[in-house]
Amino acid sequence: MALVKFSNIGLRYSTGDEVLHDVSFELEPGSFHFLTGPSGAGKTSLMKLLYIGQKPTRGVITMMGRDLATVSPKALPELRRQIGVVFQDFRLLAHLSAFDNVALPLRVSGVSESAIKKNVTELLEWVGLGGKMNARPPTLSGGEQQRIAMARAIINRPKLLLADEPTGNIDENIGIKLLTLFEELNRHGTTVVIATHNEGLVRRFPHDQMHLEHGILDIRRNPSAKAA
After folding, report:
1. What is the pTM of this model?
2. Bridge partners, 225 (sequence order)
3. Which member of 5, 16, 98, 165 has the lowest number of beta carbons within 10 Å of its beta carbon?
4. Which three-class secondary structure state does DSSP give residue 55?
């Protein structure tokens, strides 16, 4: 069963023209996709639909076996906890340490402090920031902040990980390291969707593309991509 299924999705804001037109696709568990397309093509709108931050104007979205149109407001937070999001602007809390930023989703979920200490410490070491746990975001580089944002997004072991231009504010070498971390997470079963303008990274990493142009989606299969 597909983890996510979009069926004939259309989206418009207010009374304007549609920004997405009849978008249909499936994301299989453990798959990896790049979301590509020029500025204004609708990538941000599609990402909002994927992290349940926006409702479609028409069509059906099924996520983790549930039709989003029938999910009650009380059930939405639990569903959203299975989705990790790395935003382009990081959205880290400047007054909190790296450790506390990553720990935040666990504390909201009521996880014990002993479990938080173990899990957050292990994850920050995994992303190469074991020595920066007490540092606050303003004192860190863009690449380090991006890895904190990634760690926060995956600390709850989400089934679906979304990243909006995760390499946009960092140099190419850091971008390659970050994509390697995404691939490692994907190998552990997480479905990954990365919105990007970086054609070099798309060419370097062999994954399928979800390409948007004028709100119309085209799935471009990469013959070297692993089967989901």
Report:
1. 0.90
2. none
3. 16
4. coil
